[in-house]
Write a structure and sequence with these properties.
The protein is globular, with a radius of gyration of 17 Å. It is an alpha/beta fold and 160 residues long. It has a 6-stranded mixed β-sheet. The chain is built from 5 helices and 6 strands, in the order H-E-H-E-H-E-H-E-E-E-H.
Length: 160
């Protein structure tokens, strides 16, 4: 059976999307996230906890994307979606539709109340939440609210 040029295009298109998706998005467990948080070397890390169903989270994503593109900061977006919906496809589609370039980790852990204190003892579990870490100095800041233009840069500056 002879393949049409359109079928080759579709195959190329979908393989490109799947490759891009797997290149920037991964499902992880809490132990993996704790390793990222505790890594003692590297650039300043901004770890944002969000969900596709959280309006304030979605509102601040452009600020995080801009930070990721314009600075030498490692932005990591940790999706909390799997706690309510075990299918990660919703997150993959969201990332693709919004053309998110930051690294997206989908946390595969249930019952956040049983582990959120391992991220930060002050975290009530509300979203959005952001953890900023300077691995060279060991300084950390945890913010449990929607960030607005300029706030993120100011918080990072405090850790330099």
């Amino acid at each position: 059976m002879k393949k049409s040029p359109a079928s080759f295009f579709l195959l190329f298109f979908w393989s490109t999307i799947l490759f891009a998706q797997s290149d920037t998005t991964a499902i992880i467990r809490l132990r993996d996230l704790r390793e990222i948080i505790q890594e003692p070397h590297g650039k300043i890390r901004v770890i944002n906890f969000w969900a596709t169903w959280c309006a304030p989270c979605i509102k601040e994503l452009p600020l995080l994307e801009k930070l990721n593109e314009k600075t030498d900061v490692n932005v990591i977006l940790v999706s909390m979606d799997l706690d309510l919906d075990p299918n990660p496809e919703k997150v993959y589609k969201f990332v693709q539709r919004r053309q998110i370039r930051s690294r997206v980790l989908i946390l595969n852990e249930k019952d956040p109340n049983s582990w959120i204190d391992q991220i930060d003892g002050e975290w009530s579990g509300a979203l959005p939440a952001t953890l900023i870490i300077n691995p060279e100095t060991g300084q950390r800041k945890f913010i449990e609210k929607e960030l607005h233009p300029g706030e993120l840069e100011d918080l990072i500056e405090e850790l330099l």
